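Dear colleagues,

For the upcoming journal club I promised to circulate an example of a predicted protein-ligand complex. I picked one with alpha-D-galactopyranose because it came up in last month's discussion. The inputs are reproduced below in full, followed by the predicted structure.
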Amino acid sequence: MVSPRVYRCMLLVVAGWIALAAVSPARADSGQQTPPTQLPGRNALLMGADWYPEQWPEERWETDLRMMEAAHLNVSRIAEFAWSRMEPSEGRFDFDWLERAVRAAETHHIAIVLGTPTAAPPAWLTQKYPETLRVEQDGQRVTHGTRAHGSVTSVKYREFCRRIAEEMAKRFGRDANVVGWQIDNEYGYALMSYNEEGRRQFQEWLKAKYKTMEALNTHWTTSYWSQTYDNWEEVPIPVGEHNPGLRLDWQRFVTYAWTAYQQNQIDAIRAHAEPRQFITGNFMGYGFDPIDHYVITKPLTFVAWDDYVGTGHLDPNSNGISHDAMRGLKRENFWVIETQPGTVNWSALNNSLDKGEVRAMAWHDVGHGADEVSYWQWRSALNGQEEIHGTLVGPDGEAVPLLAEVAQTAKEFADVQGAFRDTRVVSEVALLADYESRWAINWQKHTEKYDQSTILKSYYRTLRKIAQSIDIVSPDVSLAQYKLVVAPDLYLIPKDRAERLLEYVKNGGQLVLGPRSGLKDEFNALVTTRQPGYLAEAGGGQVEQYYALEKAVPASGSLGNGEISVWAEYLKTTAADAEVLLRFGKSNGWLDGQPAVVSRKYGHGQITYVGGVLSDDLTAAAAQWMTKASGVTAAFGPVPDGIEVNRRVGPKGAVFVLINFGAATQTVALPRPMQSLLERRTSDRVELPQYGVAILSEAKN
Ligand code: GLA
């Protein structure tokens, strides 16, 4: 008989092996050693600029491309808004100019990613076929001249999208210098058309899902407020406050509609493109929520996203969350296909990133799993909505001061890229992020102060300080590789999800659930077992009542001392072996002296329920407790405050990216001597000024 302790050790060994397997040639799932983000025959790290040749006389292209090459840039995304140049009138295609641009780029060793132009349909199209334009919630059709004005549910619009994608692929699907495709751009911010065509598709989608009106009425509990529907045609598109079941299904339909819109173009491209050409999209990081990104990114080769700071400066935790969430979509490296060249034009204050900060940001991207970073944009059009956005080249065609810093970073990418070949981020800790739960809580926040991203960030910040590497993943993937899994507010826990989470715990996993967990099922309906619903029995505790708090409540126990604010849940233990780690102090009478955190061993693992939003000091104490209880180790080792640690692991060993985001110069003692790649020496310490970067390799050849 194996004792739980020994069994746990065995599991850790197996988990470690699985983690390594994730980066080893024997990768069970894909059989791939090289991440799809690293292209055959090209550098493992790429740097580029998004370029719009259609906005410039052809005589200028050579100068631009020469300047890009001199700046060590080796990739460029083009054409994603050039529909009116590629199809100047209906059915008349002109790709000759684009072909010349692709060839000219090739001469300068710049690989091309082609964007399909469907975020900006041309005027002849929307004029002749007004049904291709979106209708807004107030019933008004949008006018031409912005972007994202096409209707994703318009059958006519999709025909045109398919055709332009197909014609592009026929011409460039075998082009040696075209390495891949980006479909559309930012998926039209997920805007929908509130018209009859879209509504009918939603009704069809509901019909396919529920089969009978009775099933729909039951799951949405439409007896409430006389919402009962007798036939599919009666179901509205929800606008504003509506039945939570209907809203969740509408949001799923939004995801479905955009995924189908994407697939329409993927099919058109794949029919003509060589398999080596990747297909991606341009996503917008954590917090851009209207589409369930786990679903829409499934058919893509890898994830690419656009990373902007806007006002202020890079916060490595906020930006790290977005990177880790984007990496978590497919649990694979990604590209930053657009990023801020110093400033943007759309923020409240378009201040510049500091000197050195753009370089630090690029390395921070790589540390979190990016294999490509591209600046948006090379040079701005002389007119148009974004003419005063940051660029690398000014209106006079000369380099702006930032270009030298970008060139230095691109050179560094090229110099050390070999160390990043076949490497990925490997973490022992996962945070669970679920789009559907996020939507559902936001529709019924109960207190305006309940901010899911602040809560996620407080766990992220404290846990990352300890573990130095975090994954952010869907609750529905295999969690076996993680020592610790934290779900800050997993509102929707249907039975099958609960079973999978329990399986993880039974096998030795440490699961921490935050407040509001498990109140709802997959129909966004209340579960009839007290929270955390299907996990309550195993966890040995349940929520007796929840409270939106007017003011913070003191809390203390073996976990530490601090406060709970915004949200509190009066917990009750239901199993003799459940442990109370924290209790509420004096509050509204109901909470006084009641358990606030309950933990119980289950199988070979442990479930802990945290019944409230913890203050920063309590979150830090909880993070200490949970990482210790689960045996989480630091990816690198102790570093001074302000230093961000990132680790990527490959078959040859680990490579670390250390960045100083603090104001003061810091000396970092390395846990063992490593090769400091930018300094080209072996070292046991590095000195980092503000925005200083060290790339440290332990690779064995
Ligand atoms: C987004 C878009 C780009 C451009 C930039 C400006 O990322 O994809 O076309 O508008 O923002 O910051």
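Two points we might discuss: DSSP finds 18 helices and 24 strands in the chain. Residues 185-186, 282, 306, 308, 338, 344, 376, 386, 389 surround alpha-D-galactopyranose (CB under 6 Å).

See you all on Thursday,
B. R.
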